[in-house]
Design brief:
Layout: H1 9-32, H2 40-66, H3 68-75, H4 78-88, H5 96-118
Amino acid sequence: MPKAVDASGLHLYFPEMLGIFIGAVLFNIFNTKGKGFLQKAGWYNILVGIVFGIGSLVYIYAAQMAGVASAFVITQLNVVVSTIGGMLLLHESKTPRELKFTITGLVLIVGGSFITAFL
């Protein structure tokens, strides 16, 4: 597969991250006249962006260490974290039947990911 540039993912990630940051700041300044920085929800969004950035950086390292195919499969386990987080942190209620299907699905996802990534 031809490559347009000869650089690692880490070298390409910083300019992308910087562009997204500058774009978000300019969007905030022009659309809200900077008031978005004064709101509590704005700071929560900034925190989410930082966490997303860290996750993306970790994915680049994982792809370099384990290979893209294995790293991608492992990242798809976020469904498991989101589902459990929704049930525990957001108190999403499930009927016993729904809970049984949900847990079965999570076990299948983890099992399939394990088989795909490590075997």
